[in-house]
Amino acid sequence: MEARILEFAALLRKHGMRISPAESLDSLLALESTGLGTRETVKDVLRATMVKRTSDLPTFEEVFDLYFSALGEAIRESGEQAAQALGTTLADYQKLLEQLEELLKKRQQQPGANELSELARALLRHDDGTLQRRMREASETMREGSGQSGKQEGQLGHAIGEQLRLGEIVRELEGLSDELEQLGADGETAAKIRELIKRRLADLADLIKRAARLEAARENPQPKDTTGLKSLGEKSFYYLTEDEIRKMKEAVTRLAQRLRHVVSIKRSRAKRGAFDLSRTLRHNTQFGGIPFDVQFDRRKKNRPQIVVLCDVSDSVRNVSRFMLQFVYSLQDLYSKVRSFIFVSDMGEVTKLFEDHDTNEAIELALRGDVINVFAHSDFGRAFKMFHRDHLASINRRTTVIVLGDARNNYNLPHEWVLRDLQRKAKQVIWLNPENKTTWGFGDSEMDRYMAFCDVVEECRNLNQLYRVVDRLVLS
Amino acid sequence: MVPPRLSILPGLPMFSSIDDVVQQFAGQKYICNRAIATVVYLASKMGKPILVEGPAGVGKTELAKVLSRCLDQELIRLQCYEGLDEAKALYEWEYGKQLLYTQILKDKIGEVLAGTGTLREAVDRISAQDGVFFSERFILPRPLLRAITSERPVVLLVDEIDKSDSEFEAFLLEILSDFQVSVPELGTIAARNIPLVILTSNNSREVSDALKRRCLHLFIDYPSQAHELEIVKLKVPEVADALAADVVSVVQGVRKLDLKKSPSISETLDWARALALLNVASLGEETVNDTLTTIFKYEGDVRKAQTELRDFMARQKSRTRTEGQPDPADKDVLH
């Protein structure tokens, strides 16, 4: 049993779960104290000791079902189904099997007849134990034999069939069904037995298929089981599927939570300032004026002021959704965030984000209530508008973040606005969702704008966004 | 490396089997499935902490409470929050009391110091008495220290571990693996009994792998419909069966919506109680709208759920209609 559990752990590892030897050991100890009991008990025990992340649960369920029930359960089930399909009741079916047994004995006594092979007998007699053993042996010999890695399910099934000598068994059983009348079975029974043999052969084929699937899973763990955020993190925002968009939303939310966590730690660390005499005296009157508990100044929290300008034009539609979500989280986090969106006009969405929850706010922003979102991008014009209306709100503590691809449709770039912004603000950060190599080509004005930014980052995927956030928080 | 197996004192009320857990919990009005029972049984057998995860309100904290009642052990609870530190979780010196004692014992201290010639001699005399002031008498045990020094074994609940800082988590790890605490002035205090530890997390932050590795993991999800109905009937017996079934199926339907905060078991129970208090016999549109605030905590959620509920009401109506007559509304659609 130990071997099977360890093998199972190895299989889970192949499917991308992290299981240390300590966990395998725990699961063995745990099984020892509960006993094996039913399949469900074993599953519960292994789940409790091996799965440590909620996100791993589906993987565990899948692999467990594959590994522990693939054969045993299927073999039992197929037997039951055969019984149901043929005899009306189990008793009838039992009788049929007995008749078959007698026929086989008669056949044995005939001169020149050779005995049926072990597997064929097991198949007919519903000898589940032997069947299971032979199936496993076949898989194992195949595994030990030369490289099967990279083989498809079909090929693996073929190989297992070969190991079991499927061809011979089929020949044997077909021969048997031809001989039935000779052996003295009456017409009805013969027909039934023939049906039984046909069914059992189909069952065997099905079992082989299942075994092959198990082998395939063992050899080539499906990448879909390891859809961690890892792969998602490197994927460009432009090419996300619907499912990934949903996952990405979760990831961005988690990013925001992490951000909040980091910020709170920073704040609690920064809490202690210089020695505060008056508070120390007041606090320690309870100890007779002896300064047991020394009080310090609460250092002034350095709340960053952020102004975010987010491009929501068609060319970055997919990206802006996440960007807006990110902006939303930022606004949730810091008290002094002003958010703007632009295409060719500039519009403020701070209030909108305050009043609605995430998805709603983003939908409203992208619907075109604030600004015309169907216009052609004109960064220059939008910047000029910002310069006219909001420049006064920028001061030396403000961080300006621009999210956009700088594709300006050959309009005037008006980069002097950024120059003015940079002069007044603490820093100007530009996050571009386009590949760095394409900056400055075509109608991209990135080169011009870059000159007046303190930080310019490519921000095409989640991991890059993470990095940017780290910089932002730690600065 | 094989971790040392901690033995639990014999002769204490323990669970004899997984089924025993299910039964004893049911006796305390806590319906649990076998997955939960298995983990609890294992924890009590192996002396390992349980890390419970799941959405808010599915009975994570309740699990610890019920467990303590079943085992007839005291429940010591440590609520985690941002900035929780050793002084609040483990122990603290009672400055005030130490000071008070020094004041009261001034004369005695005078006696001790009597006849000392030099300052050095006086300091030596006093430091010989150090132990008096840094003894267990002046230590203020906080939940963790209390849990491991208690005479009788206890159930320790570390609630919402994800709310604490990761530094605290690392510190907790040390206690959970060795079950001992070192106080610099006193030395190491070893556990008298190994407490049964339950940690809960709402997953607002990923708990560190090191901590997870030491725990049995349990994920409690929203219950199935049948399961939830059972819970409602058990906890709110005054509500009629038909109404309970309606309540549960509405809540189950609502959970499928994309809400800011899905209603959990506790909300279902609140709602059932509210309806029972109002003497409602069956769910009508008006009563639902009036009592909706018991299951939703956000205005936006209420609005979203209202459409879903209207559909539910429509289904209810068509179900009560006789099957022979086609619904006039259906006819309109056909034309």
Description:
The complex is a heterodimer of chains A (475) and B (335). With 475 residues, chain A is of the alpha/beta class. Chain A contains 21 helices and eight strands. In chain A, 32% of the residues are buried. The model of chain A is unreliable at 223-229 (pLDDT under 50). Chain B is built from 17 helices and nine strands. The radius of gyration of chain B is 28 Å and the shape is elongated. Chain B has three domains: 18-90 and 142-219, P-loop containing nucleotide triphosphate hydrolases (Rossmann fold, 3-Layer(aba) Sandwich); 94-137, no CATH class; 225-330. The A-B interface holds A 18, 20, 22-23, 25-26, 29-30, 33-34, 37, 40-41, 44-45, 47-49, 51-54, 57, 257-258, 261, 264-265, 268, 286-288, 290, 292-293, 356-357, 359-360 and B 2-3, 5, 18, 34-35, 38-39, 41-42, 45-46, 48, 53, 82-83, 95-96, 99, 103, 165, 203-206, 209, 212-213, 215-219, 258, 260, 298, 300.
Key phrases:
heterodimer; A: 475 residues; Rossmann fold; six-stranded mixed β-sheet; two-stranded antiparallel sheet; 60% helix; 8% strand; elongated; B: alpha/beta; 3 domains; five-stranded parallel β-sheet; disordered N terminus
Sheet with the most strands: spatial strand order of chain B: 2-5-8-1-9
Proportion of strand residues of chain A: 5-15%
Helix content range of chain B: 40-55%
CATH top-level class of the largest domain in chain B: Alpha Beta
What's the gist of this structure?
The complex is a heterodimer of chains A (475) and B (335). Chain A has 21 helices and eight strands.
Task: Show the helix and strand layout.
The complex is a heterodimer of chains A (475) and B (335).
Chain A: H1 2-14, H2 21-34, H3 39-50, H4 57-69, H5 72-86, H6 90-109, H7 118-125, H8 128-144, H9 153-163, H10 166-179, H11 187-219, H12 229-234, H13 242-269, E1 272-275, H14 277-283, E2 296-298, E3 305-311, H15 317-333, E4 337-342, E5 346-348, H16 350-355, H17 358-367, H18 379-390, E6 398-403, H19 416-424, E7 427-432, H20 446-450, E8 455-458, H21 462-474
Parallel strand pairs in A: 3-4, 3-6, 6-7, 7-8
Antiparallel strand pairs in A: 1-2, 4-5
Helix pairs in contact in A: 2-3, 5-8, 5-11, 7-8, 8-9, 9-11, 10-11, 13-15, 13-21, 15-17, 18-19
Chain B: H1 18-27, H2 34-46, E1 50-53, H3 60-71, E2 74-79, H4 86-89, E3 91-93, H5 95-104, H6 106-113, H7 119-128, H8 130-133, E4 139-141, H9 143-149, E5 154-159, H10 166-178, E6 180-183, E7 187-190, E8 196-201, H11 209-214, E9 216-219, H12 225-235, H13 241-255, H14 265-277, H15 285-291, H16 299-320, H17 328-334
Parallel strand pairs in B: 1-8, 1-9, 2-5, 5-8
Antiparallel strand pairs in B: 3-4, 6-7
Helix pairs in contact in B: 1-2, 12-13, 12-14
